[in-house]
């Protein structure tokens, strides 16, 4: 299995892409540290892994908190004595142009989506540098590659993630650490439903029309599935991607190609 004996910390592991990746990593032999701001959701993911014969622990906390970020890394290292993979998956979406979005929502988006990666990586890298090995995968988005209406804060945050990824790859490659990011299209998750609800102003008919329009923009004529994204994360996290670093991988069924 591709991650046998490796220890992986996954943020936002309680739902969606995070949970799908946690389950896949465990199937591939990883010992998983499942983190989520919803501690119960993280625990449920860990229990699903254990029920399938895998190893996992759960921890709550906010990635935008320095103390919480340190705690989640420390718990993984204290439990398993190392940290091989970090998937910075935790993220939020808040809608609006820069005239519409509140300062509070703007700050929270940047805190979770960008500062969260900075903080968790800051503590994870210290352990990886001691090991002289590691792989970090950051969750950017197709929103980092193209503009979209009423998503100023989210797109700006994901653009920052993409370039932060490249800088991290250059800064820490000499320690045997690879850093890449994924750029998913619209994936069938709670965030996608939130986006559709916001842009349709809560009107069910308009929401259905928007869903169909957005599906058509993908070559596959549908939204992606969390498990499909998880497979790309698995490749980037594994030794099979040993010559891949500083890259942004679209997982978007051609959405960014048009």
Report what the structure shows.
- The protein is of the alpha/beta class.
- The chain has a single domain (7-186, 225-251), classed as Rossmann fold (3-Layer(aba) Sandwich).
- Helices cover 48% and strands 14% of the residues.
- The protein has eight helices and seven strands.
- It has a seven-stranded parallel beta sheet, sandwiched between helices.
- Helix 5 links the parallel strand 5 (134-139) and strand 6.
- Helix 4 (103-131) runs parallel beside helix 5 (152-172).
- The longest helix has 29 residues, at 103-131.
- The relative contact order is 0.14.
Q: Briefly, what is this?
A:
With 258 residues, the protein is an alpha/beta fold.
Count of domains: 1
- How much helicity do the residues have? 40-55%
The coarse silhouette is globular
Q: Helical segment tally? A: 8
Number of separate strands: 7
Proper CATH architecture: 3-Layer(aba) Sandwich
Structural class: alpha/beta
H/E series, N to C? Answer: EHEHEHEHEHEHHHE
Overall mean pLDDT:
97
> Which runs of at least 5 residues are low in confidence (pLDDT < 50)?
none
Query: Please, what is the CATH homologous superfamily?
Result: NAD(P)-binding Rossmann-like Domain
Spatial strand arrangement across the major sheet: 3-2-1-4-5-6-7
Per CATH, the class reads Alpha Beta
Radius of gyration: 17 Å
User: N-to-C terminal Cα separation, in Å?
Assistant: 36 Å
Largest sheet: 7 strands, parallel
Q: What is the name of the CATH topology?
A: Rossmann fold
- How much strand? 5-15%
């Amino acid at each position: 299995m591709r991650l046998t004996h490796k220890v992986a910390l996954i943020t936002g592991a309680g739902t969606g892409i995070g949970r799908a990746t946690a389950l896949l990593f465990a199937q591939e032999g990883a010992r998983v540290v499942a983190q989520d701001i919803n501690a119960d959701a993280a625990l449920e993911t860990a229990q699903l892994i254990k029920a399938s014969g895998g190893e996992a622990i759960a921890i709550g906390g906010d990635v935008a908190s320095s103390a919480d970020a340190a705690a989640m890394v420390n718990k993984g290292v204290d439990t398993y004595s190392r940290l091989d993979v970090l998937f910075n998956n935790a993220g939020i979406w808040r809608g609006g142009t820069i005239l519409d979005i509140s300062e509070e929502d703007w700050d929270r988006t940047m805190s979770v989506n960008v500062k969260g990666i900075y903080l968790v990586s800051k503590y994870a890298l210290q352990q990886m540098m001691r090991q002289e090995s590691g792989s970090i995968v950051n969750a950017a988005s197709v929103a980092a590659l193209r503009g979209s209406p009423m998503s100023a804060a989210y797109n700006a945050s994901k653009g920052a993630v993409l370039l932060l990824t490249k800088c991290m790859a250059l800064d820490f490659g000499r320690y045997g650490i690879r850093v890449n990011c994924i750029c998913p299209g619209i994936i069938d998750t709670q965030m996608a439903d939130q986006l559709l609800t916001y842009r349709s102003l809560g009107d069910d008919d308009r929401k259905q029309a928007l869903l169909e329009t957005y599906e058509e923009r993908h070559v596959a004529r549908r939204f992606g599935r969390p498990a499909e994204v998880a497979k790309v994360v698995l490749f980037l996290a594994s030794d099979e991607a040993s010559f891949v670093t500083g890259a942004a991988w679209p997982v978007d069924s051609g959405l960014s190609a048009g």
